[in-house]
Amino acid sequence: MHDTAPAAKASAWLAQLADTLQRRDVAGALELFAEDCYWRDLVAFTWNVKTMEGKPAIAAMLDATLAATGPRDWAVTQGAGSEPIEAWFTFATAAGRGSGIFTLENGKCRTMLTTLQSLDGHEEPLGPRRANGVRHGADRNRATWAEQRAAEEAAYGNGTDPYCLIIGGGQGGIMLGARLKQLGVPTVIVEKNARAGDSWRNRYRSLVLHDPVWYDHLPYIPFPANWPVFTPKDKMGDWLEMYVKVMELTYWGGTECVSAQFDEAEKRWTVELRRDGKTITLRPAQLVFATGAYGPPKMLDLKGADSFGGKMIHSSQYSDGSAYRGRKVVVIGAASSAHDVAVDLWEAGADVTMVQRSPTTVVRSQTLMDMAFDIYSEEAVARGIDVDKADMIAAATPFALQPPKQKALYDRIRARDAEFYRKLEATGFLLDFGPDETGLMMKAYRTGSGYYVDVGASQLIIDGEIGIKAGVEIDRLTPTGIRFADGSEIEAEIVIQSTGFQSMHEVVAKIVSREIADEIGTCWGLGSGTRNDPGPWHGELRNMYKPVAQENLWFQGGNLALSRFFSKFVALQIKARMERIPTPVYSTPLQ
To answer: Which one of 200, 354, 441, 529 is most buried, by most CB atoms within 10 A?
Structure first.
């Protein structure tokens, strides 16, 4: 028999919460929460992306937002488990409809997720609300779909301004563009590369996504059932190009954003673009930077660079190792790109050495598949967990509670692959699992660097096919290679710096101004106080997917999964502003 007790207990708790919030009884609401409690809100209450940690923080948020939010119509849709109970629910606000997840321990709420899912009167035209697509009957003035699309595309180049301009036409910009299109927000996406998908096509030839297909779907059009588990870069590029066309996005390839200035009085941007050699000026209200999770490449300023007789490039400039066959190549760096580039060079017949300056977290791909993607898998789909449901499950755990869960996972991973790690460390490779042993995912959130999902490079290192020089500082470049602080030298004809990227706000410094970029501050990271992620604690990714210090400016980025999930909430925030729906942003000094 199906156990209805969890749903009943969850419904009773939610009814109590609804009653206290209806009466604006914040003290009464707090009595329903455990002492160690968390409320993560994505736009529904705060018009922000924010986690409240502890009762005082929740009280401050409710005091500030209840009057404007007017939450109502709370209903549990699913409850499961014994201790804790996990319950899914829906609710409504003054602006629209929402959904969420909460957990109960000993009758008290430990964690709560609330998300805005739609705006009343501005729902996406999906399912029963889909467009008719044709107006039946004879009409001498009929405009076909193709004619309408051509007119729409031409208008933006002939004096019509979009409401939103997205700088960056990779996966993040494309997914946000699709969300905005469905919400009826006039949007132009500009991209320096010629074609949609070129940001993938132009990378090194052997690149394949390290995350599985179930984790990487785009909104509205999931990958087909025959799609490979790991997507090759060119196949991904073709999919993005198809997606842009099918989703009817206005996408300007071969276009560079030169500058942008915000008019405080008119609340619009003046953006200068260079498209196919011509200057175009657009005046959007909202400006989105979707240049990935990163900004410009970081390059080490190495002594002796002027005397080096070989070639030195950043890994972002690398595409193909065929020109390096038989030549000595040094890759500086030991994270994902460095490993992938080293493998590509080895496959091309180069003599490759990797210079590792700090420890790297390495996890075998199959191990991650078996142990870390339980809700993003074929088995999960069979259990009724599609990608949207999986995204909500993932979002329901606040960042503050993730480290202990990730540490427990990586304790199991290290035990399973102990022999693999022993062999890798025997080569001199510097291995770690983060400063608090929490592994790859926390490094990804904190710094976006310092890890590698092993798809073949580690065995080449173990076998001595890729050389390792680890833990010794570089002293200088010489005419023929690299000299290290211990006096040793490595001969090199080509040096490839796989040394990462600057923060995305550096792109703002280049296009808008240094002052505004500094006012916004660093993008990405949690403020964990660990290496390269200085405090104070934010509890959410810095400046991502939410209002920032500069009005009408947004950041959209991250991997496919984060771009997919958060594109919905960025789009809803922008749509609400276009429709002049009140959006009182609840924030603290750290947002």
So the answer is: 354
The stretches of 396-451 forming alpha helices (DSSP H) are 402-416, 418-426, 440-446
Please provide the size of the chain in residues.
591
- Alpha-carbon distance 377 to 387, whole Å? 9
pLDDT at 3: 62
The neighbour count for residue 481, using CB atoms within 10 Å, is 18
pLDDT in tens, 188-197: 999 999 999 9
CA gap 535, 527 in Å, rounded: 4
E strand or H helix at 201: helix 198-201
Convert the pLDDT of each residue in 455-475 to its tens digit. Answer: 999 999 999 999 999 999 999
Mean pLDDT by 10 residues, the chain (591 residues): 78 98 97 98 98 98 98 95 92 98 97 98 93 81 86 88 97 98 98 95 87 97 97 97 98 97 97 95 98 84 95 93 95 96 96 97 96 96 97 98 97 98 98 96 95 96 98 96 96 96 94 98 95 93 97 96 98 98 90 65
* pTM greater than 0.90 (yes/no): yes
* CA separation for the pair 418, 401 (Å, rounded): 26
Average pLDDT, the chain: 95
Query: Across 63-163, where does the E strand assignment appear?
Result: 72-80, 85-92, 96-105, 108-119
Q: Where are the alpha helices (DSSP H) in 33-104?
A: 55-69
Say how many C-beta atoms besides its own lie within 10 A of residue 134's C-beta. Answer: 9
Q: 410: which 2 tokens? A: 């990586």
β-strand partners of 497: 314, 332
Give the residue from 339, 139, 313, 175 showing the smallest Cα distance to 249: 175
**What does the alpha-carbon distance between residue 492 and residue 217 come to, in Å, rounded to a whole number?**
41
Cα 451 to Cα 4, 34, 337: the distances in Å are 43, 35, 10
Contact 531, 447 (CB under 8 A): yes
CA 38/CA 397 separation, integer angstroms: 9
Structure token digits, residue 52: 């409240």
- Counting runs of H as helices and runs of E as strands, what totals does the chain give? 18, 24
